[in-house]
Write a structure and sequence with these properties.
Elements (H helix, E strand, L loop, with lengths): L20 H6 L29 H6 L39 H4 L34 E5 H7 L4 H5 L5 E2 L13 E2 L2 E2 L5 E3 L2 E2 L15 E8 L3 H4 L6 E7 L7 E9 L3 E11 L7 E11 L10 E14 L2 E15 L4 E4 L6 E6 L7 E18 L2 E26 L5 E28 L2 E29 L22 E18 L2 E18 L7 E16 L5 E12 L14 E13 L4 E19 L8 E21 L2 E16 L17 E10 L9 E10 L2 E2 L8 E2 L2 E11 L10 E8 L7 E4 L2 E4 L4 E9 L1
Parallel strand pairs: 5-8
Antiparallel strand pairs: 1-7, 2-3, 3-4, 5-6, 7-8, 9-10, 9-36, 10-11, 11-12, 12-13, 13-16, 14-15, 16-17, 17-18, 18-19, 19-20, 20-21, 21-22, 22-23, 23-24, 24-25, 25-26, 26-27, 27-28, 28-29, 29-32, 30-31, 32-33, 33-36, 34-35
Main location: membrane
Subcellular location: Cell outer membrane
Family: Belongs to the TonB-dependent receptor family.
């Protein structure tokens, strides 16, 4: 992911040179590989140390490609509440719950058939209520129970046990939810909320509070046929907590390392005297704490109200809203001398508590509407408005700024302010019927996304850091002035997409045909100067063909071809607009639900090629770009998710990803090189065990996980050194006090430890190295009723 430098026009970049708008425009909407995999510009350090603060080229690359009332009123445990609001009946041990199509079909309603860590159905892959077994792509679901057991604090942590995901490329960086799927960055174009794309700018990236989620679904591989522009790696769809038809409550008090204090609550149920037509949910969290970075703070305020109106069994209208205020360090990097061929890593923090806060204030409001004209005809409309205001202030050690005697370090400063506003609406009509022996689920839709952001930035110098031989740096001891902000620039993008999908079933064959046409218009330029505005218009068709064959009701092999695209603003050497970058995937696999259990197995192989990647023009490589580059990712994934009884869960995943540049005439020495920072092999496993009720230890549960990441190149140049393998361990232990005294039913004490052995490790990408988070522990007192 590129988070670097200012979006400027004719002004000084952090490297000191002037960046013309045409050059800025030429790299908008690129994937990360177009900057780091196929080098197109020289860069200087960037905020937070991710390959330095590059010029405006890197900054813009991350943007423009850039989301039953009559139910019984009894009380049930929170973990057994479905996203639909009806209580999820606990099936016999090992048996999956049936799916409720009215609850989860489309509309971002989230997965259903949830038992422990396993889910039977997710609408993310088809926007219909299709079982995971019958979707022609790899899909993983992270349930609320798994999120609770692991006590995840960020979206990165939440998806870290999922196959194909690289969530630790940039080490510990609390500023952003930044990760890769199958080797491709998805941060700016691949995060969805409730089925709607969540656009972002380079720094105004909506933060996701995991406590406010019912589930997370990861769809791996291109999703352009349903969702339009995006990353070849896939999408992550987070499902907001929704009102329930059964009253419940939860209070969660937490204490953690580094003076961390957190309180959270989650309340919901029907509104009295409304005959079940109105229900509500209110979720909130307050955190005050620090982190292991010198002077680093981690504060958050979050509130998310939701209301559902169900005037009849056929009509549902749910309002979803949120306010979040988040403050973290503006720089999470440690000094690494990437001018040295060995890229020396140090434990010298690059920031300074005197000037380093990054504040994000955001709010959203939207709704999910569904009406059934008949059991076979359903209309849905989903809408959301999002506003994000981000203010980044940072201090960083300059490249090569460390003195020869290791006693001082030259530094500079920056301030970047982004304001982002987005509107997104998706209209869907689902019709079920038959033509002769063929049964159809037909989905048609039209969606529209409008996103605009403005940016102002300024840069300056800070007094040298007095290090004292790398022993006691004088952090916070000197006054650091705030740089003046320059003129504002603005980027605006609108996308209109129409799509059609037919899921045709004949006997044991299920053919999924998806097609979509998009029109994307993008403008970028300085505010108040329309003559210097760059514009681009792209039209593209995306699709998917998938075939499933039900060998048995539980064993299903599948095959699919899918593609996606992302627009690229700018002109080549001949003055012609760049073609959109495109990605195509071929995937095959087999899915298996072990009969009579809640055990789900998935194996897949894939091959993804991204073309029209911007690369140096062979004729004028120093001054022009052209869409001639290509990147290929291929590999295999294995996943197992099992619920073996109440509180006994297992999730395990193995991934092999081989991603490299396959075409780059302007920089041929990169051809065949694996892209840096992406581990070739990963293995993750997490399991919990609850002591049976007939034992004296009933009420006690415990578990843990292992995260292994294999080696990878540390830079995108030939003969570079490699990142070391890393194995991390996590731990959870909990006790439910109902065993001690029935009056304490619902009281639970839980302890979580991440990086149990406190391993110090780094991951280097594009020549910059990022330190992983040390051991962290959380002690939580939870009361549910």
């Amino acid at each position: 992911m590129i988070f670097a430098g200012p979006l400027t026009y004719g002004g000084a970049s952090p490297c000191g040179e002037s960046v013309p708008l045409t050059t800025i425009a030429s790299v908008m909407s690129k994937s990360v590989h177009q900057v780091r995999g196929l080098p197109v510009v020289a860069s200087c350090p960037r905020p937070g140390g991710r390959a330095g603060r590059s010029a405006a080229l890197g900054l813009l690359a991350a943007v423009a490609a850039s989301p039953d009332p009559a139910a019984a009123q009894g009380t049930i445990p929170l973990n057994e509440i479905t996203v639909a609001g009806a209580p999820a009946a606990r099936p016999p041990a090992g048996v999956g719950a049936p799916a409720d199509a009215s609850a989860t079909s489309g509309g971002g309603g989230g997965p259903s058939g949830v038992v422990g860590y396993s889910a039977r159905v997710s609408p993310a892959a088809t926007k219909t209520n299709t079982p995971l077994l019958e979707t022609p792509q790899s899909v993983s679901v992270i349930t609320r129970e798994q999120l609770n057991d692991r006590n995840v604090q960020t979206l990165n942590e939440a998806i870290d046990y999922t196959p194909g995901v690289s969530a630790n490329v940039f080490g510990f960086d609390p500023r952003f939810d930044s990760f890769y799927i199958r080797g491709f960055n998805v941060t700016n174009v691949g995060i969805y909320r409730d089925g709607l794309r969540q656009p972002s700018s380079p720094f105004a990236i909506p933060r996701v509070e995991p406590y406010g989620l019912d589930a997370i679904t990861i769809l791996r591989g291109p999703a352009g046929g349903l969702y339009g522009l995006g990353s070849p790696g896939g999408i992550v769809d987070v499902t907001s907590k929704r009102p329930t038809a059964t009253p419940f409550g939860e209070v969660w008090l937490q204490r953690g390392k580094y003076d961390r204090y957190q309180g959270a609550f989650d309340l919901g149920g029907p509104v009295e005297n409304t005959d079940g037509q109105l229900s509500y949910r209110m979720t909130g969290l307050v955190r005050q704490g620090n982190d292991f970075l010198p002077g680093g703070i981690d504060d958050r305020v979050y509130i998310a109200p939701a209301f559902t109106w169900k005037p009849s069994a056929d009509t549902t209208f749910t309002v979803l809203a949120e306010y979040l205020n988040n403050t973290v360090p503006g720089n999470a990097s440690f000094y690494s001398d990437f001018t040295d061929p060995r890229f020396q890593k140090t434990k010298l923090f690059s920031g300074d508590p005197a000037f380093q806060n990054f504040n994000t204030e955001q709010y959203r409001v939207g709704y999910a509407f569904e009406h059934k004209f008949s059991p076979d005809i359903v209309f849905r409309q989903n809408f959301r408005y999002y506003h994000v205001d981000a203010d980044l202030r940072y201090t960083a050690i300059s490249p090569g700024g460390l003195s020869a005697d290791l006693r001082t370090a030259a530094r500079d400063t920056g301030r970047i302010a982004n304001i982002l506003d987005t509107f997104t609406v998706d209209n869907q009509l689902e019709v079920r019927g038959a033509t002769g022996p063929v049964r159809h689920t037909l989905l048609t839709g039209i969606d529209y996304t409008y996103a605009t952001y403005s940016q102002r930035s300024g840069f300056g110098l800070a007094p040298d850091l007095q290090i004292g031989g790398l022993i006691r740096p004088n952090y916070g001891a000197q006054f650091i002035p705030v740089p003046d902000l320059g003129a504002a620039t603005r980027v605006t993008q609108s996308q209109l997409g129409t799509y059609v999908q037919d899921q045709a079933r004949l006997g044991r064959f299920l053919l999924t045909l998806t097609g979509r046409h998009d029109g994307v218009d993008t403008t970028a330029g300085p505010v108040g100067d329309p003559s210097s505005t760059a514009e681009a218009t792209n039209r593209a068709f995306s699709g998917r063909v998938g075939l499933n064959y039900l060998l048995t009701d539980e064993l299903v092999p599948y095959f699919s071809i899918a593609n996606t695209f992302a627009p690229q603003l700018g002109l080549d050497r001949l003055g012609q607009p760049f073609q959109p970058t495109r990605g195509r995937q071929i995937e095959g696999g087999v899915k298996f639900n072990v009969p009579g259990t809640s055990v789900f197995l998935n194996a897949a192989v894939f091959d993804i090629t991204q073309t029209n990647v911007l690369a140096p023009d062979p004729v004028s490589p120093l001054t022009n770009l052209t869409a001639i580059g290509a990147v290929n990712s291929h590999g295999a994934e294995l996943e197992a998710v099992a619920n073996l009884g109440p509180g006994i869960n297992v999730t395990a995943a193995y991934s092999h990803v081989d991603i490299s540049t396959i075409r780059n005439p302007g920089n041929p020495e990169t051809i065949g090189l694996a892209l840096s920072g992406i581990p070739g092999n990963t293995f993750r496993m997490f399991a919990t065990y609850a002591m049976p009720s007939w034992t004296d230890l009933y009420g006690l549960s415990f578990g843990g996980g292992v995260r292994y990441a294999g080696t990878s190149p540390a830079n995108d140049v030939p003969d570079t050194f490699r990142n070391s393998t890393v194995t991390l361990f996590d731990l959870v232990a909990a006790y439910d006090f109902a065993k001690v005294d029935p009056r304490l039913t619902g009281v639970r004490l839980q302890v979580n430890v991440t990086n149990l052995l406190d391993r110090t490790y780094f991951n280097c990408q594009a020549g910059a190295c990022y330190r992983g988070q040390p051991r962290q522990f959380y002690a939580s007192l939870i009361y549910r009723w």
